[in-house]
Amino acid sequence: MTTGNPLASIGDAAGTVGGALAVSLLGVLVQLVLLAAVYVWTSLALAAVFRKAGLPSGRAWVPVLNIWMLFELAGMKGWWAAVIVSGGLFTAVIASVAGSLLLQSAQEAAFGGGGDGAGAILAASVVPTLLFLVFLAGVVILLVRMMGPLNRGFGRGGGFVALGALLLPVWASAIGWGAARWQGLPQKGLPPTPFAAEPVAVDTRGVPADTSGFAPPAPTSAPGPGTPAAASVPVHPWSPPPLAPVAAPVPAPAAPAAPPAAPAVAPGEQTELEEHTVLAAHRRPAASLRLPTGQTVALTSDTIVLGRNPAPPSDAPEAQPIAIDDTTRTVSKTHALLRRTGDAWTITDLASTNGVVVGTSDTEITVGTPVPLAGRFLLGDAELTLDAGSR
Q1: Concatenated DSSP letters for 185-246?
Q2: Keyword set for this entry (predicted)?
């Protein structure tokens, strides 16, 4: 009976285990590099999404906080992001412990401890993978719940919901760098008319339904002898009948007033009236701006700066700031500049996020280039109207 060298068997088993560990470490390193690249890509795309929604773009680079902001933008609780992260850490710990135990079993089987070493190595790879798949299924369900209202706010349908739940970097790139605009979360019931002012409720509880009791009483004096008959006065059908025939009173003719005597003015003297000559008001026609809420603001300067919280630019420190109450959340903090030259107005895009559209065009104007303006224009999705006035 021929027996093999036990030292050679032990060396072969050790080499097998060492090779498996080296392959595992190499795979982990490659995964970390890919994960870092995907995170940078996702942060850049989410920064563009946050800018469109009027949120600080720097939060897209903060782990956990970027997902927290997406949940809040969708109208959900932001702490769901913490639930996802803590669940991922818990799953990673459980998978690591299970993998370590299974690898230890494989080593014991290789060094003669009994058991199936190949099966233990296979289980060390499969069990952690199954744990991560279960965790990812829960994350996908939660992301689908979030992506529904979030995509409706950007005007996108079910295809983008699936894209955002399965491939968040691709979804963020399509929304942040694409043509989608933030329209706000849909309201319950009938949607309101865009840019309409809030209706004002009128309290009519104190107004009586019948106002005939407030009619003036009919005159009761009868016409004197020789007085011509007056025209009939219409009587309200619910008013009480008159006690006497109704006749319109005839006022007595008033004596004509004597014209005032003109004061005597010596030659060379000036009257007080001549000293206060009235000047003709040849003023520039008043211009005004109608905001998205329906409010009208008078333009008191030749330079106007517009935005959510506008600050006059360095080349126009005297500009009149007008804050836009933006329900669409597409207006930048300092968005555009209006300037009057003579009776003509121009508008300049101050490097805004969502651009400026003038008139009925669908093309945004060039940043930093003044464009003639008259009437309707858009700052993002907020509609405004310029009334230049008329002589």
Answers
A1: PPPSSSPPPTTPPPPPP---TTS-S--GGGSPPPP-PPPPTTPPPPPPPP--TTSPPPSS--
A2: Membrane, Phosphoprotein, Transmembrane, Transmembrane helix
